[in-house]
Amino acid sequence: MKLFQKKTLIAVFSFVYISFNSQEKTNILWLVCEDQSLFFSSYYDSIAKTPNLDELASNGIVYDNFFAVSPVCSPSRSSIATGMYPTTIGTQHMRAYKKNKGSINTKTNLPIYSAVPKRKVQFFSENLRKMGYYCSNNSKEDYNMEMSPLAWNESNKNAHWRNRNENQPFFSVFNFNITHESRIWSNYKKHSSDEINKVILPPFFPNNNTIKNDFVTNYKNIEKLDEQLGEIINQLKEDGLYENTVIFFFSDHGGPFPRYKRSIYDSGLKCPLIIKWTEKRNELRNNQMISFIDLAPTILELTKSDTNHKMEGVSFYNQNNRDYIFAATDRFDEHTDKRRCVRNKEFKLIINCDTNSSIMKPVLYRQNMKTMRILDSLNDLKKNTISMESWYKKTKPKYEFYDIVNDPYELNNLYNNKDYDSIFYELKKKLDNWIDGSDYGNITENQILKEMWPNGEKPKLKDPSIIQKDNGINIISNNNNSSVGWRNNKTENWKIYSTDEIINPENSFEIIVFKPGYGSIIKTYQ
Predict the structure, then answer these.
(1) Among 22, 130, 329, 469, whose CB has the most other CB atoms within 10 angstroms?
(2) Given phi > 0 = left and psi -120 to 50 = alpha, else beta, which region is 410?
(3) Domain range 465-525, CATH architecture
(4) Could you tell me which of 393, 95, 92 has the C-alpha nearest to residue 264?
(5) Would you call 135 a catalytic residue per the annotation?
(6) Is the model's pLDDT at 11 over the cut of 80?
């Protein structure tokens, strides 16, 4: 064989080998909607027509026990991004942190603050980037804490896996707000009587056509969501990536209606989750219990990414590790309702920390919804359902205890039924231990802020330093539990720096240090 032919064959084989290796890492796509419970045909509610989600479910697995850690978005998203409970890292109060929103929270008159965790906390996508993944977020952040500049290659409305290098594995997140609570009133219209009559309301709501009309609007929004999801999935197929991409579809918490969103009942916590894995699995549905905090460790296991700190979540990729679900409610906008719950597959226990106030909080934002105004009117007329009367009642019991197999809407409180004492005390012990293990879950928001900002000011980072080596440079963070990155010029993405790594930057380069609650510091070196 001629030398030229040998070299050509070697080059071809090398190219095939490199290409094959580059595809060994699984691509991951997250499709995240807002404010939705199980209003989907995959969960036996067939009113909304969702062909794209139905196809995804037929190629994947429908998960029947997937739960948010909080029934509102920003605390829940902090847990998704970190694998930690909001009450552990201090992100449980709704929008305590709001980017570019001044220095004072007008709902509380407290400073706007980004939570300062007591433990090591990291945005898990930093680990993926360290493993060579292209991480994109299109485009909602809203994590109730400052975002790590190292978490994404890009986070904006144009972020897309198509912006990565050739053959680079990706983790891409697309967020869809078409099903947000606000779209119930912004997309309001009077629907036909045929459409309204198809709606079966949950038993805690009165049988009211105005409420049903809002439900129809939600179903219409879901249909629009399905179209938008289909566009992204079709782009995967166009790129020849569908088979080699794990696709997650889920919601950021429960549905947009009263006693759904902001509610610690399952209507506010239980969310849809459909996953199309790349490998064949011999199941169509999965009944294991999964919490939002389990998403991050699952992705890390799936991608064989390491982390140097302990998350509270557990991976569900190839195992069933969870027996209990925990969740919390705290401040929503201008009102606080501190409640905690624990749940197994059969029973649920709720503790109400403030018994001298109603479960219903008059959140001003929610008054835009006709359903909310109807419920208020019926309550004034004393014509509400028994369940909604309890929701409005000016006091609430210390404990609520439900048989969620036979009472999935949590209507019949069994706390005073002595037949269930052993189960009650078993769950109470689990819940007490979880509450006691919380770093910030047992104190008020004022006390949280005093602990996080002991001098009344946001804590500051120390400057990093560098050590010159014969073969390059070491970066010393000088800040415990921090993330470090570097780049040669301001147009580049930050590169993730690993401890003791030796880098060879150009003559002028930048170093960034980020720590949750402290923000980031950037230093330029010549």
Answers:
(1) 329
(2) left
(3) Sandwich (2.60)
(4) 92
(5) no
(6) no
Half-sphere exposure of 317 (CA within 13 A, CB side): 15
For the record, the structure tokens of 498 come out as: 């690993």
Which parts of 51-145 are beta strand (E)? 61-67, 134-138
The pairing of beta strand 285-286 with beta strand 61-67:
parallel
pLDDT of res. 3: 33
Provide DSSP, 261-299. Answer: TT-SSHHHHEEEEEEE-SS--S-SEE---EEGGGHHHHH
- CATH code of the domain occupying 25-323: 3.40.720.10
For the ranges 95-104, 114-123, 219-228, 232-241, the lowest mean pLDDT is seen at 95-104
Q: To which residue do tokens 């197999």 refer?
A: 405
Domain ranges for the chain = 25-323, 330-452, 465-525
Three-state secondary-structure class, residue 456: coil
Confidence of residue 23 (pLDDT cuts 50, 70, 90): low
Per-residue b or e along 179-216, where b marks 16 or more CB atoms closer than 10 Å to that residue's CB: bbbebbbeeeeebeeebbeebeebebbbebeebbbbbb
| Active-site residue, from 33, 73, 135, 271 | 73
For residue 380, the surrounding DSSP H or E stretch is helix 370-380
Structure confidence by residue, pLDDT tens digits, 125-140: 999 999 999 999 999 9
Cα distance between residue 464 and residue 513, in whole Å: 7
Residues 362, 96: Cα–Cα separation, whole Å: 19
